[in-house]
Amino acid sequence: MSSEYLNNKTFEGIIGRFQQAKRDRNKYTLLLEDMKYCQRRCQKKDAKNWMPADWLAKEEEFNDSIHNFHDSQKELASAFYTLSENIVRYAKFNLIDVDDAVQEGVMICFEKIDRFDPTKGKAFNYMTTCVLNHFRQLYRTARNYNELKKKYLVFLQTSVEKQLNNSKFRNNSNFSKHDATGN
């Protein structure tokens, strides 16, 4: 495991680039869908060579935005991985698998990234809180599941013991009936 430090300014910069790339990707996706719709509509009107003047430019911008989105997503995933790995090493929850916890931490960060607002606080604190709360929930779930399994095991043991005691009582009572009748 690495003991890499995650600088908050760098982290917020990565998040900002990712959020901007995501907005750009969504914007150009909608623009291209609209342009394709217009093209289909105009082709029905026998304008066979119809193509918007900025079609190729918009398509190139769309490809650039997709590329930027994937690059920022990879960079952000690396930062989230470092954060989750450090939190798992710090928290040491004993009922949670370390590798699964790191993956869960990265996924939770991606789920919560849209809710982050840099004007309300620091990215490092926000993401750390999200990951820690999720790990605590995983720990509570694992602990409750183990307690439920123990309770069920005790229930099964007591029910089997009751059945055994009842069957011994019946066998003893049948034996005493047979002795009394002489059979």
Structure overview:
There is one protein chain. The chain has 183 residues and is mainly alpha-helical. The protein has one domain (8-142). Helix content is 81%, strand content 0%. It has helices at 8-44, 55-91, 98-112, 123-181. The longest helix is centred in the last third of the chain and has 59 residues, at 123-181. It starts with 7 loop residues before the first helix and ends with a helix. The mean pLDDT is 82.
Summarize the structure.
By secondary structure, this protein is an all-alpha fold. It has helices at 8-44, 55-91, 98-112, 123-181.
Shape: elongated
The beta-strand count equals 0
**Derived structural class:** mainly alpha
Q: What's the number of helices?
A: 4
Q: Would you spell out the secondary-structure blueprint of this structure?
A:
Elements (H helix, E strand, L loop, with lengths): L7 H37 L10 H37 L6 H15 L10 H59 L2
Descriptive labels:
mainly alpha; elongated; 183 residues
